[in-house]
Amino acid sequence: MGMQTIRILPDREASAQLMVQHERLGVKLNDGQYRIQSDSKAGMFYFVTLPAGSCTCPDFKYRVQYTGEDCKHIKLARMLEAV
Q: Could you tell me the residue range of the domain that residue 38 belongs to?
């Protein structure tokens, strides 16, 4: 039997804070909507809608919506909203 690779996902809160520190900030499009730059793919952006609590990133689409946790892009948008 071959070895199995397990990907460990980083803490989403810590990832969002690192994105702020490295100035990978989002752009507020309108009330509660943000465009957030991907931290792993240059030139890729995800769209966050805070009132709906949704994001277009794969983490939200395929994992987070089933656990009830926010992805790092939603966390980042909430940090920006609080400023």
A: 12-82
